[in-house]
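Hi R.,

Here's the chain you asked about this morning:
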Amino acid sequence: MAEDVAIQGEGIETLHLRVLRRKWQVLTLQITATISLLWMYIIMTRTYGSCDPIDSMWCPALDHTLTLSVIEQFLQAQPESLSLPLPDWMTGMGNTGDGRYWMPLFVISILVAGWTILGLQTTKLRRRVNMGILGFALLYLAGLFVINWFLGMLFSFDLYLPFGQMDSGRNHVEHLVSPLLLYIQLFILVFYFLPVISGLLGIWGMSKSKISWAIGSTIIYLGLHALLSYEGVRSTLELNLNALPVQIGEATEWGGLVAPEIVPLLIIGLFLMVFLESGFATIRYVEYAFKLPESCKKDPEYVNQFDNILNIHLQHTVGVTFFVGLVTALALKFDDLIVDLVSVFEGSQWSGQVKESLELQLTYGTVISALIFVIFIAGLRYIIPWPRISGLIEKGIRQIRDQSA
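And the predicted structure, written out as tokens:
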């Protein structure tokens, strides 16, 4: 048992939580997950955030500036000529391209960093800060409204409701408009950036549930976009939303393996995989070290073993990401391979029909052929000992490294 292990000698490094958070391997995993999450979100905005150039219609795409612009136009059309409280440079309105997202992402990163630092403090301090933020939000919402209402009743020596006629001086509802607009604007930003907010909180706050929320919200958005961009739905609801191409073009990217329409989708999938694996790995390894007995946390053997596990995981992340991308590209190219194999039987009616089939070039045809290829690759694990082969490769790399050292 781990409790029965005797301390072989206390080293400089330990496996305590404060030390683990500063280890370069743990920080590398967290930074890798953060970069994957942010870049995945940017690629999603480039892929799913484009709309048809019709300024008079709203597009339900992954672009918060479209919704804020519609609200801004509605407020400016009112007699009071209201405007949203947050400035445009903070929300990204007025910018084009990726500039619409960098400043909100920067502000969100600062807020998440502060929230993470707060989570490392004592329970009493966290409770005070949370109550202070909640109290300030309520005071900003209703403070000026209540004060003006109270002073109005005090100076008029009369009790009245604060919803009277505008010209009577007894209507104080206008003091609620600006706070409500601010909270609506914040709600829209949180709604659009929910995958990033929950993902960053999960990575740096060591929370598996928040990482799951980030993954779930991303998948839900992709599903909603696929549903709303369906031709039947678009023609019925008249949504100003660009759909992904139904027919995939010629494979010209990645050495002729992937079509240009598939590249952003494949990159999103790879970044999603790296974010999920790196985020969960950080929490899993830190929890493992945290649950060790006190004697093991100070044992140099356990520290070295923990470092080796993290180093191997980082190497596997790079290797697995490369091979998953390669296998996926080959799977998407499998429909062309089917046509090439059929061309061997040149002259038969069956081969000609398959070669000229349009279904193989459509999206669902590519998906079906890729699924067949993935099933074939998965079945190879019963024939080829992949763990043995990967172990021999790692052993050879380790021997070469030892010889060079």
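The CA atoms of residues 312 and 394 lie 9 Å apart.

Let me know if you need anything else.
M.
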